[in-house]
Amino acid sequence: MSAKIADRLPGADLLHPGHMACAGCGERVAMRLALQILGRDTVFVIPACCAAVVDGVFPYSAMGVPMLHTAFETGASVATGVRASLDAQGLSETTVVVWAGDGGTFDIGFQALSAAAERNEDLLYVCYDNEAYMNTGAQRSSATPLGAWTTTTPAVHPKGRPKKDILAILAAHRIPYAATASVAFPEDLMGKVAKAKGIRGTRFLHVLAPCPSGWKYEPDLTIQLARLAVESCVFPLVEIEAGSRPRLTYVPPRPRPVAEYLATQGRFAHLPPEGITSIQQAVEQAWADLVLASTGRPAHA
After folding, report:
1. Which CATH number do you get for residue 214?
2. What is the pLDDT of residue 109?
3. Which of 39, 49, 124, 258 is deepest in the core (most CB within 10 A)?
4. pTM
5. Is there a domain that residue 241 lies in?
């Protein structure tokens, strides 16, 4: 994080030194930014994921707020119970946050998340998305992008299916707020956390969090990669309020080639030119569909 951004952080830094994250971990950047907005009156529920490990070994913690570690599939259901307990004590202003990886959101924890969203439970669910089961060795998840290497989709048989559109799925529950964010756009990320904090009901934030070891890149490129994902339209920044029309919160002045984003990551090094072209076409179509949904006008208009 640059000194310029750090100087403008609004709150106390509640993420302390000594955590066990890898160098360049996108999740820790996202956590630090989110804590700036959430503040001390927050309870975190963290299912099995990298975040459950890097915080520190019990009884030590690098976070300045209470948190509960839960089973992989129970993040949203445990948070529902925490919310009910706090409300029974008259602590309705305390924010309850589920902080989960893509495995515990897109896959194993989805049933609890969907059920909580359908009930419109009063919680903020944040998925930090590093696009695989990184805590257990970089296995494929349904958040893994098309064509990517993982330990269960090796280069000779890379992932053959596109990434699940988790934002559209959550928005289809007609929850009060759903949005994407990136660690490379800190003001946008913190603004969305602030907006979500001020809303009652289920709020969902999908944060792209690059992983140096799983994506196979040098740790100092984390923010550059996160920015390229947005500027190439691979990961658009968007928010949807109460099932309404999506609103783009950043539009690249001139979209960067997807090849530029893929080339910085070893997990795509095996792709032939035609594979890259196919991904570029899919990204362009998805972006055109999003612009049309957002503005009611074609992307080229």
Report:
1. 3.40.50.970
2. 97
3. 49
4. 0.94
5. yes
The CA distance from 37 to 35, in Å, is: 5
Position 200 in a domain: yes
State whether residue 202 is helix, strand or coil: strand
Domain encompassing residue 173 = 3-295
Average pLDDT taken over every residue of the chain: 94
Could you tell me if residue 196 is inside a domain?
Answer: yes
The 3-state secondary structure of 51-86, one letter per residue:
HHHHCCCCCCCCECCCEEEECCCCHHHHHHHHHHHH
Mapped onto helix, strand or coil, the DSSP state of residue 100 is: strand
Tokens of 114: 């969907």
Which residue in 50, 55, 54 sits closest to 72, CA to CA?
50
Distance (Å, whole) CA 214 – CA 149: 9
Kindly list the distances between the CA atom of residue 90 and the CA atoms of 13, 83, 86, 173, in Å, as whole numbers in the listed order: 27, 11, 6, 28
Q: Which two tokens stand for residue 74?
A: 């129970």
Exposure string of 54-85, with b = 16+ CB inside 10 Å and e = fewer, is bbeeeeeebbebebebbebbbbbbbbbebbee
* Structure tokens that stand for 100 in this block: 């989960």
Find the radius of gyration of the CA atoms of the chain.
18
* Structural domains in the chain (count): 1
